[in-house]
Target: tRNA modification GTPase MnmE
Amino acid sequence: MYERDTIAAISTALGEGAIGIVRMSGGDALVMANQLFKGVNLLTQPSHTIHYGHIVDPESKQIIDEVMVTLLRAPKTYTREDVVEINCHGGIMAVQAILDLCLQMGARLAEPGEFTKRAFLNGRIDLSQAEAVMDLIEAKTNKAMQASMNQLQGSLSKKIRSLRQTMLNTLAQIEVTIDYPEYDDVEEMSLQQLKTTAQAISQEVQHILKQAQSGRLFREGINTVIVGRPNVGKSSLLNRLTGWDKAIVTDIEGTTRDTIEEMVNVRGVPLKLIDTAGIRQTEEVVEKIGVERSRKALEEADLVILILNQAEDLQEVDLELLKASQGKKRIILLNKQDLPSQLDRNALAESSGTATIIETSMLEEAGLDALEDEISNLFFKGQLQSTDINYLLNSRHTQLLKQALAALDEVQSAVAMELPVDLIQIDYTRAWDLLGEITGDSVQDELLNELFSQFCLGK
Ligand SMILES: Nc1nc2c(ncn2[C@@H]2O[C@H](COP(=O)(O)OP(=O)(O)OP(=O)(O)O)[C@@H](O)[C@H]2O)c(=O)[nH]1
Ligand SMILES: [Mg+2]
Model:
């Protein structure tokens, strides 16, 4: 284990919470805490115990707060160093005052992510687990949380390690070939083996990437764009789904002038819901810009909710939107079904293809359940159960996996071209290295600093 100074930070969210925690980690954590703590002598207490007492300013002798102190001795701690957690009353004053005292005792203010960084450097967790901690802090819904938990428990690392082990076996085999070039048939064999493993590994990597694509949706929210002509009820839908009046709803066409975004959770599926300006021909400058944005939002959407007003017949713009959303995951709502029907369903059927059509009334809150069912169906059907989202990759992971994939492709084409084994081996080893960077088995210092600095303080 490395020799390190003692760090301290507030590890609960700042604010008026019920309790706040100041956490210290390092060789002097216990001694420092003991100088501030009035109660039992912490230095003689066994590990993993919690003690009641007061934090007292050693200079002014003033009582700062009534606290519970958790005492955790190395190595069975989050950082594998001695850790002390001072649980005090929430609110900024007490927590901040106690942190100040810790710093006065000689602790250093922890950098963002430094506790987790130490956990990594001391070998308690690997890199992808460390990153999962970060995701967990940011996770927006239960399902995203689940994926982070899985990763924390090491599903990605486990997978990558087993892939690398397979690759290592082949590498060893090749070494033999290079050392004993006189055996032609050995070379022939290794080439064959290289090809098969490169292929197999490449498939596995593709599979991880594919699953991660769903993971991304869960972490960042599914880009869901509500489009339609003015006044069909787009803003009303946003308000129904968020449960509050985020967007202004009026009977004036063109009420929404710009896109409005809100995160909502539909049956555990996080949607980044985007209400757009109604699309129509307009000469009005502000509205025109809004309409442009609506079209752009439509292009970038993961899911399109196209609203039609069934109290009117299909119009040019409706048909245009039906066309523009083709090839996207989409749901069509026939809104205002509380009003007499005017819309020609046969004409609609011709332009809507296989899209699911749901009758709704935002006014009477009808059809919303069916809509939620459909959303959950679209994103969970068959392949996508929450327990399947094992890999929640960040962009660093994705990059590395793609680079590894490219290197493996090189291997395969090199084998096809019958290049010498030692040349092919270079690409193969590169793929192996790249995968290793995911778990941190081969990783450089700057990368580590960069990575851990993204954490919030106190983790
Ligand atoms: N009768 C009836 N009226 C509705 C329904 N949904 C929305 N409305 C009304 O239609 C009008 C327009 O609703 P909005 O939600 O503002 O429509 P929008 O699509 O956001 O309109 P723009 O922002 O102008 O593009 C409002 O007066 C709503 O109260 C519905 O299901 N039935
Ligand atoms: Mg609107």
